[in-house]
Amino acid sequence: MIIGVPKEIKNNENRVGATPAGVNELVRNGHTVYVQATAGEGSGFADEEYANAGATILPTIEEVYSIAEMIIKVKEPIESEYNLIKENQLLFTYFHFASHEPLTKAMIERKAVCLAYETVERADRSLPLLVPMSEVAGRMSIQEGAKYLEKPLKGRGILLGGVPGVRPAQVLILGGGVVGTNAAKMAAGMGADVTILDTNLARLRYLDDVLPANVKTQMSNSYVISELVKTHDLIIGAVLIPGAKAPHLITRDMLKLMKPGTVLVDVAVDQGGCIETCKPTTHENPTFIIDDVVHYCVANMPGAVPFTSTQALTNATLPYAVQVANKGWKKACADSEELKKGLNVVNGKVVYKGVADAFGLEYTDVASVL
Ligand SMILES: NC(=O)c1ccc[n+]([C@@H]2O[C@H](COP(=O)([O-])OP(=O)(O)OC[C@H]3O[C@@H](n4cnc5c(N)ncnc54)[C@H](O)[C@@H]3O)[C@@H](O)[C@H]2O)c1
Questions:
Q1: Is 96 a catalytic residue?
Q2: How far is CA 341 from the centre of its chain?
Q3: 308-317 residue pLDDT tens
Q4: pTM of the entire predicted model
Q5: CA distances from 75 to 251, 269, 276 (A)
Q6: Local structure of 153: helix, strand or coil
Q7: Of the residues 96, 248, 291, 292, which is catalytic?
Q8: How does pLDDT run across 274-298, given as a tens digit for each residue?
Q9: 3-state secondary structure (DSSP) of residue 287
Q10: Is the beta carbon of 176 within 6 A of some atom in ligand 1?
Q11: Residue 278: CB within 6 Å of ligand 1?
């Protein structure tokens, strides 16, 4: 198959759809890979590395789209890319269609085959192509939180791990899923005093077994949260209710209970946030302050660490990309329930129910396009 890896053109997006190692794997499977010049630059991969891995470098995005049967990228195509997409061209990337009607309509119109990372789903309902970004965001939440606790950045001026003779910071994590667990590991490793909350008792039992002794687990409810916010220095929002907006576990009134300089990192901001006063921010301007409480609410946290994020993402996407390239999308999706769930829009038809419902569009059963 002829595969194209374009450079991401979305504002501040430095990740890339394939690493040189990924390209090499595809080439070794008999495929031809075209990579746009400087596509990997933001993630630390030079054109030369792609060329050594077996790719051909093309100077423009137009050439990549025009030659490729399958495009592997990271973010959804943006408006200037819509007209480059051809009928039957397979796009394997994050789309998040349900929150973007013009994109959905454009992909229907272009008659592309859209295989979305975010809806590839395992039998246990886990989302293997979302997990790596949650791991990155969870770990990064502590790194960012520790930084904003510094006085010049308007935090309490407390060192996460303390020093001998001085108590460490207290870190509260709301939600013990992928983000929360990774945050807890980092905070515990830095020596903080960590409390992690979840509503799922089985999950709390598991976390209690695997996390170090400086992480305590507690059942999540609004009474417990309003007590804990009084004493904690750094609070991480990491809850998810699949398919729904995040619940506001920290209300505006609770800010008054917090110590001045408390730092809130709401990782769940992409689902509306679990802190009522949170609104999305960017890497250029990541924080704002309300009632002396620092809010960090960057919606695409992994974008700041593209070297790590690109490799984490492609480690997860590559095995699927190889299946699709080897078998063709129809056979690969017919053979794999996981990949089949990734199909959203196929040749003008919406084959993912949630997307059709979001915009009142006609839904076509995926089986009829395979
Ligand atoms: N900002 C970013 O850059 C970024 C990056 C990756 C993920 N995210 C977001 O982070 C959030 C968490 O993702 P995840 O992968 O960890 O999800 P997950 O499903 O692995 O974990 C969510 C956890 O929240 C728990 N939960 C639900 N309701 C709760 C409540 N009332 N109190 C406490 N816990 C509760 C669930 O039991 C579950 O354990 C999602 O909204 C995701 O989209 C954001």
A1: yes
A2: 18
A3: 999 999 999 9
A4: 0.91
A5: 32, 18, 27
A6: helix
A7: 96
A8: 999 999 999 999 999 999 999 999 9
A9: strand
A10: yes
A11: no
